[in-house]
Specification:
Elements (H helix, E strand, L loop, with lengths): L1 E4 L4 H6 L4 H14 L4 E8 L5 E8 L6 H9 L34 E10 L8 E8 L5 E7 L7 E9 L1 H8 L1 H18 L4 E4 L2 E2 L6 E8 L10 E8 L8 E4 L5 E5 L10 E7 L17 H35 L12 H23 L3 H17 L4 H7 L5 H13 L1 H27 L1 H10 L2 H5 L17 H9 L8 E3 L15 E11 L2 E9 L5 E2 L1 H15 L9 E9 L1 E2 L1 H7 L8 E4 L3 E7 H19 L5 H12 L5 H14 L1
Parallel strand pairs: 2-8, 12-14, 15-16, 17-19, 18-20, 19-22
Antiparallel strand pairs: 1-6, 2-3, 3-7, 4-5, 4-7, 5-6, 8-9, 10-11, 11-14, 12-13, 16-17, 21-22
Helix pairs in contact: 6-7, 7-8, 7-11, 11-12, 11-17, 11-18
Length: 658
């Protein structure tokens, strides 16, 4: 046994150690460069199912003692570096620096090469064994023994398998997909080259969906010719890579394509006369360098080709879903911008999951999955990604891609804005019906609490109050002085029961707080009177007394706090109208002091103001709503607070329709 020293520094050798998938590919490339016709990748496991050894065996030319010593003693000086170097079988060589073998240590800490080859000058074949350990990459042990095989070839045995390699082989499909992407063109081009992975032949042609050649028009000043081969796979979770190849197809490097294309599973291969194994890899990252310009051109062509494929795939898939009756949208054109955006984003999401959905043959399951995705997209987009991960089993990297698209696209925001504005339009129509329809208005006073509804819709009083919540200190003070507003008055968060046990319908006080800037706080207090009560001067006086007590309470008696008190009812008396129309004050302002203001409004004015604020967006979105749509939303959101007449009307309409 001979111990040899590798002529390279430890840090340099360690830099050649790659991830498990890349290390496995390097061992197969070494076999290709030795004119192997068959490469087998196998594993042996222990009783617990963990991998003991990884073996990569080929029937190539193998190494004799002299070649082994030369190959392992030097790094960066290989016979493959000669210009136009070809193997004996006329194959273009993959590696030229003699460092690929060190990638094997990414699979395990102990690596052994057992190779059989004829002796120099036609001597009898012998078997050479080379042993290395990741703890001492600068030294190798080489021994020569009796011939172990009647044919030449090399068997690489990897032991002390790393956790990363164990994990990679646990994800068998992903590792197989990586090998398919790496060797697809060579398996197609060289019919005498075959790979078996875990006793299964790699046959790219059986899983290639489409393959096309794209001739590239290079920028001015860039010599040579370049072409792009795009393979789209009928697989899931393919490791998308852009392989950089010499003119003869030898791969010198690979890079991420940096292209978002949901639903696309692809690898691409860029061939250019100017790529070589000797070219500095740093030039590939320089967009102004010649290689950088070629790569930029290739990415643009790749992006256009994938977009074209995506459009065709989407059209075919949606057409098929419609034919099956599982597409969750009705036939016909979208009715407004929101619906159009919803369909467009839905199709993007659906294409990402299409392969998984199509695996099921059940029409019912397909329809359910697609409907759930639509509902999640429309109602709670944040819940969509967990659904795709847990139910559809979408891989993490595809989820990240989809998340980035959904966050950046304006269509997603349009859907969310459209949903919110549409809901507000429907709410205003429903509230209008509850307040002013004679039958529902009368019953509302007798049985249910309309006021409870408004505690969840504070945007009605101004957009600045749309995202405020309950304020416990404020509520405590509001409750402390409620008696100043008379009998039968409560906070929106409280439930009132009369002495006879029946639920009461009080006037309601609603409070919200909002910081107006870094050192100021604004409070809104709203008193909602019963719809059948006409606001009078006594109501304003009561609210003024209430306001004065609150703003002077020790918890809020501060110079940086301001207050707006609102009094709202269906109608006003003449004396109140005079208070609301005073010279030098905005309409509706009945009192304006240093600490607080009192505003008196009718419901008609509040609804009109709210409609005006959203009118432009509503018209832009072409959203249509009416009284029935509004009442339908009220039934859905606030059923416990609505009179029976609202539900009886729904039943009557359903009967008439039937």
């Amino acid at each position: 046994m001979t111990r040899i020293t590798v002529h390279a520094g430890k840090s340099i050798l360690e830099s050649y150690v790659k991830r498990p998938g890349a290390g496995l590919c390097e061992l197969i490339w070494n076999a290709f460069d030795e004119d192997a016709t068959l490469v087998r990748v196998r594993v042996t496991t222990n009783a617990l199912g963990a991998i003991d050894q990884i073996q990569v065996e080929d029937d190539g030319h193998g190494m004799n003692l002299q070649r082994a010593q030369l190959a392992f003693e030097t790094v960066g000086d290989s016979w493959k570096r000669k210009p136009g170097a070809l193997t004996e079988g006329k194959r273009p060589v993959h590696g030229k620096l003699g460092r690929g073998r060190y990638a094997a240590f990414g699979l395990g800490r102990s690596v052994q090469w057992v190779s059989t080859a004829p002796q120099v000058e036609g001597g009898a074949p012998s078997t050479v064994t080379v042993r290395g350990n990741a703890d001492d990459l600068q030294h190798m042990e080489i021994s020569e023994g009796a011939c172990e095989s009647t044919t030449s070839g090399t068997r690489v045995v990897v032991g002390m398998v790393t956790a990363a390699a164990q994990s990679a082989f646990d994800r068998t499909d992903d590792l197989r997909n990586q090998l398919l992407g790496e060797f697809a063109l060579h398996l197609e081009r060289y019919e005498d080259f075959n790979i078996e992975f875990l006793d299964e032949a790699l046959t790219p042609v059986s899983v290639i969906e489409t393959q096309r050649e794209i001739e590239l028009e290079l920028p001015d000043g860039v010599d040579g010719t370049a072409s792009l081969t795009l393979i789209e796979w009928n697989l899931s979770n393919v490791d998308r890579r852009l392989y950089l190849c010499t003119a003869d197809g030898s791969i010198i490097d690979d890079i991420p394509p940096g292209i978002r294309s949901p639903g696309s599973e692809f690898t691409a291969y860029l061939r250019w006369d100017g790529f070589s194994h000797d070219a500095p890899m740093l030039l590939l990252d320089d967009l102004d360098s010649l290689p950088g310009q070629v790569i930029t051109t290739a990415k643009a062509a790749l992006r256009a080709a994938l977009a074209d494929s995506a459009r065709k795939r989407e059209a075919d898939t949606v057409r098929g879903w419609k034919a099956e009756g599982v597409y969750p949208f009705e036939d016909g054109e979208p009715q407004n911008a929101v619906e159009s955006a919803t369909r467009e984003i839905f199709n993007v999401v659906a294409m990402t999951t299409a392969r998984t959905i199509e695996e099921t043959k059940s029409r019912r399951v397909k329809a359910l999955a697609l409907r759930l995705m639509r509902e999640a997209l429309e109602n709670d987009p944040e819940s969509l990604l967990p659904i795709l991960h847990e139910v559809v089993k979408l891989p993490g990297q595809r989820l990240d891609e989809l998340k980035e698209i959904l966050e950046r696209t304006s269509l997603t925001h349009l859907i969310q804005v459209g949903k919110e504005i549409g809901g507000r339009v429907d709410f205003l129509n429903g509230l209008d019906a509850l307040l002013f329809d004679r039958q529902t208005r009368r019953r509302m006073l007798e049985r249910r609490q309309l006021h409870r509804i408004l505690a969840n819709e504070t945007w009605l009083f101004g957009e600045q109050w749309s995202i405020t919540g309950d304020d416990k200190p404020l509520n405590a003070v509001l409750k402390k002085f409620l008696q100043k507003l008379g009998q039968d008055v409560e906070l929106a968060s409280s439930k009132i029961v009369r002495d006879d046990g029946k639920e009461a319908i009080p006037d309601l006080v609603l409070g919200r707080s909002m910081p107006s800037n870094e050192d100021r706080m604004t409070h809104l207090v709203v008193e909602l009177k019963r719809p059948n009560h006409r606001l009078e001067a006594a109501d304003v006086d009561q609210l003024r007394s209430y306001a004065s007590a609150i703003v002077n309470d020790e918890r809020f008696n501060q110079p940086n706090v301001t207050w707006d008190f609102w009094l709202i009812g269906n109608d006003t008396r003449k004396d109140v109208d005079e208070m609301r129309r005073q010279i030098g004050r905005p309409f509706g302002c009945a009192h304006q002091g240093e600490k607080y203001s009192i505003w008196v409004h009718t419901w008609a004015e509040v609804l009109s103001s709210a409609r005006h604020r959203i009118k432009f967006v509503e018209q832009s979105l072409q959203y249509e709503s009416d009284r029935d749509t509004g009442l339908s939303l009220m039934r859905e959101r606030y059923a416990p607070y609505l009179p029976d007449e609202v539900f009886e009307e729904e039943i009557d309409q359903g009967t008439e329709a039937g």
